[in-house]
Each structure stands twice: as structure tokens, then as C-alpha cells.
Amino acid sequence: MAEQEIFTQLSTYDHEQIVFCNDNATGLKAIIAIHNTVLGPGLGGTRVWNYNNEAEAINDVMRLSRGMTYKAAISGLNLGGAKAVIIGDASKIKTEALMRKFGRFVENLHGKYITAEDVNTTTKDMEYVNMETKHVVGLPESMGGGGDPSPVTAYGVYMGMKASAKHVFGTDSLAGKKVAVQGVGKVGGHLLEFLHKEGAELFISDINQEMLNHYAGAVGATIVKGEDIYGLDVDVFAPCALGAILNDEHIAKLKCSIIAGAANNQLADETIHGPALMNKGITYAPDFLINAGGLINVYQEHIGYNRETAYRKAEHIYDVTLEILKISATEKIYTQKAAMNLAEKRISDMSRVKSTY
Ligand code: NAD
Asked: How far is CA 338 from CA 68, 284, 312, 346, in A?
């Protein structure tokens, strides 16, 4: 993206606030972007990344914070959207002092922003942040937190996949259905277990041979080489590794009926590849809807953690997915757009609810 004036960027997607945090002593250079707090405090993780320049960091934090607004809204949570980035090489810059200093900046926002872990931050980092602010989630279970959110995320993806099957095949049973899972990490691994239990025929790809061997044994999955996963003749493709994999090249190869996976930002360009999938007759379960189990899990931590309640709320992803697929079919709009419209409607409706004291 070409460099733009900051206020031009804020107004493009109506961001509320951006906070630049600098501390020479610890080397902290962080940006907190708060996109929208109509539904509640902005919640989103803190990413540490070695950006090439400041414009790239600003662009990333603005894009990610907006994504969180949609994810929270579509999931029925009373949360807004926000995100933070810390600029630098995670292996070199992360110290107790830097994370605690960042925690003080979070504290200064008095709960308007709630942070959590993200790429290159860990539960341990959040423990340091928590020494300076209570506005942090994603803490270990030993500290009253929700622990690893990935089983709940996988359960939500599974629910989204079953709803998509109901829409496409008329039954939500995945028994005997062929499912290809790209990325057998934390979420992909748990997803495989749900699918295996139900009797799906599984295909897997990953760059980690050890994990592939493990799941080939544990759930009897067939290992597929890298790029071959896109062209498999399967019922469902579940991207659980990387974003932007639904591009021109890969969509041309796809033979699946449904795409339902955990990876964030699967559509390389949503306005091009959302319609492209629709035109090809492939049902795409919107990623920000069906991978919201992780956010549901940390939201539960924010209001008082209970894992059963987190699973129950993640189960609701089934109903919302079905509703969105129906809207998409009736209104002839691509599924990601239908989901975004529904999220925007909820924000707009709730802003009116809040218009009286
Ligand atoms: P993870 O790091 O545990 O697993 C990712 C897996 O993908 C790893 O096994 C990795 O080896 C594999 N991988 C990397 N590059 C690959 C490639 N080119 N081809 C095939 N496999 C490749 O991460 P995770 O927590 O399981 O998350 C998976 C995806 O879901 C990510 O995109 C993440 O942003 C998204 N997500 C995760 C959660 C959560 O609760 N963990 C919540 C929402 C979204």
C-alpha cells in the first residue's frame, strides 16, 4: 500500500483511535489500533513482527483490528475490534521490561483495549503484561485464564464445516466424506480428531513431516505432498495453515464442494476471490466466522472463564453459518460479503440501542 496520511488511513475504514507507544529504555515501539467499540471494548492480540518500515506496521495493525471488529460482531460477542503490533525481531527484542512497559500503555487505555497473545507472543509474555494491567486475556489456566484456545477454535471450525455440509449435501453428517486438511498444527490437529471420530476420510499436508507421520498414524490420514492438496478430488478443503491461499492459481485447481478451515484471511483478495469461488460453485464458509472459537474462548475469560460455556457458544457457529449460506444463496452475494453485512447490521443495530442513556 502506498504511504498515506494517518488520518486518511483512519477514516478509510472509520477507525476510532491509534496509539503510538515509544520507550527508548526498553526499545519498545508499539502501535495499538482500536477500530470500533460500539459493541464493547476492543479485543485483539499483540503481534511482534519485524516490519520493513513503519507504514507496513501501521497498515497491518489497521487491517487486523478491523478484522477483529467483524469477528466479534458476527459471533454475537459484546466486544469491539482492536489489535496491537510491536515492531522488531521477536527473538531479539522481547524482554520482561519491554512486555511490562507495553502492559503499562495498555493500562493507560483503561480497558478500552484488551490484549492477548498473537503471532510471536506467548502466554509467558501475557503474564508480564498482566503484571502492569488487568486488561489482558489468554492467560494460563493456573492463573485463572482459559489456556490454549485451539481446541475451541477447532470445534467452531468443525461446526462451520457441518453446517456447510448440511447446506450443500442436505445432511450435516461427515461420515464417509473426504476432507483435506492443510496444516496439522494446533487447530488442524484437533479438527482431525473431531473428523476422525465422525468417520470422515482424511487427507493431510504440512511442512512438518513429524506432525504428518503422527496424524497418519493417529487418525489414519493419507499424507499429500505440498501443493497437491489443492487439486484433490475431495468434498471439503480445510485450510488450517496459511492466509491468502485462495488465489487465482489455487482456485483454478480446486475440485472440492466446500472450503471450511481455521486460517485467517484465506481469500487473497476478498472482492475477487469471494465471487470466484461462488462462480465455481464452491461453498466457502467465511473464515472470520468459523474460526472465532479462539476469540469466544478469550471473551469467556474476560467475563469469567468456563470452558463448557465457551464450547456451547462455539457450537452456535453452526446456526450462524447456515444463516449466512442461506442469505448468500438468496441474495446471490458471496458468503464473505453476506457475513460482513450481518456483522455490520449488528453493529449498526446496537449503536441505536446505546443511543439513549
Ligand atoms: P500452528 O502453528 O499450530 O499450525 C500451523 C501448521 O501449519 C503447522 O503445523 C505448520 O507446520 C503448518 N504449515 C506452515 N506452512 C505450511 C505450508 N506451506 N503448507 C502446509 N502446512 C504449513 O497454528 P494454529 O494455531 O493451528 O493456527 C492455524 C491457523 O488458524 C493460522 O492461520 C491461525 O492464524 C488460525 N487461527 C488459529 C486460532 C487458534 O486458536 N490457534 C484461532 C483463529 C485462527
From this structure: 17, 11, 24, 13
Residue closest via CA to ligand 1's atom 39 equals 150
Q: Is 83 a catalytic residue?
A: yes
Candidates 29, 71, 83, 101; catalytic one: 83
Strand partners, 21: 30
- As its CATH architecture, domain 3-66+79-140 has 3-Layer(aba) Sandwich (3.40)
Give the residue, by CA position, lying nearest to ligand 1 atom 32: 263
**Of residues 324, 350, 347, the one with CA closest to residue 337:** 324
Distance 24 CA to ligand 1 centre (A): 34
Distance CA 35, CA 11 (A): 10
317 CA → ligand 1 middle, Å: 20
The rounded Å distance from CA 349 to ligand 1 centre is 34
Q: What amino acid occupies position 102?
A: F
Q: Which residues pair with 49 in a beta bridge?
A: 87
What DSSP element (H or E) covers 83?
strand 80-87
In CATH terms, are 3-66+79-140 and 150-345 the same topology? Answer: yes
C-alpha of residue 233 to centroid of ligand 1, in Å: 23
> Is the predicted pLDDT of residue 2 greater than 70, yes or no?
no
Specify whether the CB–CB gap between 262 and 192 falls below 8 A. Answer: no
Q: Which atom of ligand 1 is nearest to the CA of 205?
A: 20
- Which is the closest atom of ligand 1 to the Cα of 189? 26
CB 215 within 8 A of CB 186: no
pLDDT tens digits along 77-116: 999 999 999 999 999 999 999 999 999 999 999 999 999 9
Q: How many residues does the chain have?
A: 357
CATH topology classification for 150-345: Rossmann fold (3.40.50)
Q: Which residues line the pocket of ligand 1, CB cutoff 6 A?
A: 149-150, 153, 182-188, 205-208, 211, 240-242, 262-264, 291, 294
Report yes or no: 13 and 63 within 8 Å, Cβ to Cβ. Answer: no
The model's pLDDT over 207-230, given as tens digits with 9 standing for 90+, comes to 999 999 999 999 999 999 999 999
| 99 phi and psi angles, rounded to 5 deg | -65, -35
